[in-house]
């Protein structure tokens, strides 16, 4: 096993050795000439020793083994930033750190610019984003800097490093925070290089094999405890301690053992900086507050973290909430009414700042059930049960079923059902309440930036198209984020359409048209999102990523909301005499240079369906496109729609598709949602070449929507069910289904 000091020395030794074997290598520092420079100088002075060395073979100096350099005494020099991971340490950036870099000229410049000169980026590792130093601060043995990671010249991530030189090891141990949201160990290793050409890629992470073996051993507590005693200076030690603590708490180790582990944990955390120490104190306090241990012990460590923050440690963005949750959990375990009430107030205060935080809502349910109002408990549970579970909640539920003595966590839907029955005597009205609660959940994400948009500016309506799947876990964030967009703006400014796909599993909300539209955009997976015909990246994840996905869409959307266009769409949709009468007329397209298409869609709103990924309320689901997926072409220079669609044909086309898919795939769509009641006609104008959407309009179908009950028609024996067709083959696939009445493509 290599210690950090030996790893750094070996890395330096390898770099030095490689450098000596190649001519024209980079100088090791500004004050040391390269070997090629020395040779040039020797030839210029006519040194006979030089000539002799060239003809007589290797000199004694060339045969000498490279010497191990002395350990750095200050932070000045070149350093490689290594990001420790479970199995390897990844080299990110190569820096040059300079002490006393400020010149007289610098003193007249801004402080940020002056400080930035203390740390300079020389090179970046392979597959690492370009970056620039924003600010830095150094002393003889410490270094801090903030760095912007760039994408197309714009910052997408902020890296903050804080570290201290370990004189006995020759490395700078510290920690990294990304966007001020987390804190992980990191280190700077000394190097003589000025680029990455001779620095090898990822290095094996010290202690990775030992840690894996300890965690998989029959007695992980014993093995992890030994690991933490032996591997004090490896980065993975900061992964080992929380796991060791969790096992100790679950095995109900005595207080002395717990405190001894915590003492070593915090002592080790100090090596990686005061920010890492504070982060570890909060982690310890949080773990103790969740356990059955003495609540005073949790408060003790939380108080120590508070002191570090007051003494100058800049808090990470999540610390305040995590500490509040830990203090509240500790308070709720108390038998003193005043502490319990204080815990409840603390949770309620935090909920004002974090209205959709599920941990806060869960703790408030606990508080209200035992010490407050059942109505409020139901209110909080409505949000928890009406929206998808987080990954952590799913794990807790699974573990609690396997080992209820170790973990007690009830599904929020089960808790809500019990309380609802206690209050109302039955579950009548619960589904409607969950739908309203889901809408409240979405509303809680609406940002201040969205609320401040001037809706009077611009007449262009924007279209968001989401390609999603009912069994797709990362589609949760995209589905909910687009729902938050709908909660943020009226449909006179933004319209959202959702096209379901059989990805990664059969989906009863999918249809031929939604698949064809997916192919039209050349998408490769779900979720995929388009704004006005153009793709948006970064919209994906679980319920934990709803806010970030929402902000990603919002950033692209807001500039479009103030745009003006001459394009106007007039439309109407009426259900009458078992038919849908659909009309649309477009004007104002004369100045658009490319060929245009009129795309018409029937979408169903507020559809109730318990999807495998946890979403139960589905809005604006595309049920049919009234032409090919790229829409109607202009006729005599005009884009228009005038179509009569029998309601039974509309529904029959969907049911026939699902039946055919069931027959071919073996899927079971029993109970598929096919009410098809809250329909909307959505029409938009799209460029045939650019795929840009120039205008969109929507109107709910008025009148009475009724479907005749008919027996399913039998299929010919030789007929094979159609699968998701390609756009060019769509009309052929339809013709191959004798039980479906062909639709006329009218304009």
Automatic annotation (TrEMBL):
Comp. bias (Low complexity): 25-39
Matches recorded under InterPro entries: Ig-like_fold (IPR013783), Thioredoxin-like_sf (IPR036249)
Biased amino acid composition, Basic and acidic residues: 58-70, 710-747
Region annotation (Disordered) ranges: 22-71, 706-747
Biased composition (Polar residues): 40-54
Superkingdom field: Bacteria
Name by which UniProt lists this protein: Thioredoxin domain-containing protein
Organism: Gimesia aquarii
């Amino acid at each position: 096993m290599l210690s950090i000091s030996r790893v750094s020395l070996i890395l330096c030794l390898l770099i030095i050795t490689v450098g000596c074997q190649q001519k024209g290598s980079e100088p090791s520092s500004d004050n040391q000439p390269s070997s090629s420079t020395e040779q040039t100088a020797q030839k210029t002075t006519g040194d006979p020793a030089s000539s002799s060395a060239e003809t007589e073979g290797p000199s004694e100096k060339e045969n000498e083994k490279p010497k191990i350099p002395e350990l750095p005494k200050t932070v000045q020099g070149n350093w490689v930033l290594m990001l420790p991971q479970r199995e390897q340490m990844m080299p990110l950036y190569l820096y040059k750190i300079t002490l006393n870099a400020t010149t007289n000229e610098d003193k007249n410049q801004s402080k940020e610019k002056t400080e930035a000169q203390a740390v300079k980026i020389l090179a970046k590792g392979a597959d690492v984003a370009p970056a620039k130093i924003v600010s830095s601060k150094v002393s003889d043995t410490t270094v801090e800097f903030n760095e912007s990671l760039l994408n197309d010249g714009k910052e997408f991530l902020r890296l903050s490093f804080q570290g201290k030189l370990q004189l006995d090891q020759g490395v700078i141990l510290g920690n990294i925070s990304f966007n001020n949201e987390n804190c992980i160990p990191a280190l700077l290793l000394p190097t003589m290089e000025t680029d990455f050409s001779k620095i090898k890629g990822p290095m094996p992470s010290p202690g990775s094999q030992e840690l894996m073996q300890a965690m998989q051993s029959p007695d992980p507590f014993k093995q992890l405890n030994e690991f933490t005693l032996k591997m004090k200076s490896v980065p993975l030690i900061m992964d080992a301690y929380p796991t060791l603590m969790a096992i100790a708490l679950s095995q109900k180790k005595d207080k002395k053992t717990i405190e001894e582990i915590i003492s070593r944990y915090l002592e080790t955390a100090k090596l990686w900086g005061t920010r890492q120490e504070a982060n570890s104190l909060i982690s310890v306090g949080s773990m103790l507050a969740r356990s059955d241990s003495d609540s005073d012990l949790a408060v003790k460590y939380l108080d120590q973290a508070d002191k570090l923050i007051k003494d100058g440690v800049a808090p990470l963005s999540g610390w305040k909430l995590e500490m509040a949750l830990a203090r509240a959990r500790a308070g709720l375990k108390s038998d003193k009414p005043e502490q319990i009430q204080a815990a409840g107030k603390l949770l309620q205060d935090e909920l004002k700042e974090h209205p959709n935080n599920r941990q806060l809502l869960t703790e408030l349910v606990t508080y209200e059930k035992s010490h407050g109002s059942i109505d409020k408990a139901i209110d909080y549970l409505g949000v928890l049960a009406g929206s998808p579970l987080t990954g952590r909640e799913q794990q807790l539920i699974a573990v609690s079923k396997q080992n209820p003595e170790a973990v007690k966590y009830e599904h929020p839907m089960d808790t809500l059902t019990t309380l609802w029955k206690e209050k109302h005597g039955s579950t009548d009205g619960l589904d409607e309440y969950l739908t309203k609660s889901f809408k409240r959940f979405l509303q809680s994400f609406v940002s201040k930036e969205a609320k401040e948009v001037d809706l009077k500016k611009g007449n262009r309506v924007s279209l968001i198209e989401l390609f999603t799947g009912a069994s797709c876990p990362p589609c949760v964030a995209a589905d909910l984020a687009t729902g938050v967009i709908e909660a943020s703006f009226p449909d006179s400014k933004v319209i959202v359409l959702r096209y379901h796909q059989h990805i990664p599993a059969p989906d009863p909300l999918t249809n031929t048209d939604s698949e064809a539209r997916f192919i039209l955009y050349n998408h490769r997976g779900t979720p995929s999102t388009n704004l006005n015909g153009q793709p948006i990246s970064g919209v994906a994840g679980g319920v934990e990523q709803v806010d970030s996905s929402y902000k990603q869409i919002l950033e692209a959307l807001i500039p479009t909301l103030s745009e003006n266009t001459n394009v106007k769409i007039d439309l109407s949709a009426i259900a009458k005499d078992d038919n849908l009468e659909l009309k649309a007329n477009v004007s104002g397209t004369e100045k658009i240079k490319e060929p245009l298409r009129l795309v018409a869609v029937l979408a169903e709103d507020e559809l109730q369906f318990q999807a495998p990924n946890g979403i139960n309320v589905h809005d604006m689901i595309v049920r049919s496109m009234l032409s090919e997926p790229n829409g109607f072409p202009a006729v005599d220079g005009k884009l228009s729609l005038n179509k009569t669609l029998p309601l039974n044909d509309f529904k029959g086309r969907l049911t026939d598709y699902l039946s055919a898919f069931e027959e071919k795939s073996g899927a079971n769509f029993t109970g598929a949602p096919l009410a098809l009641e809250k329909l909307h006609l959505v029409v938009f104008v799209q460029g045939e070449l650019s795929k840009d959407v120039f205008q969109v309009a929507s109107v709910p179908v008025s009148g009475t929507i009724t479907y005749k009950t008919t027996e399913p028609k039998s299929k010919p024996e030789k007929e094979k069910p159609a699968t998701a067709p390609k756009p060019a083959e769509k009309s052929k696939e339809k013709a191959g289904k004798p039980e479906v009445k062909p639709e006329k493509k009218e304009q």
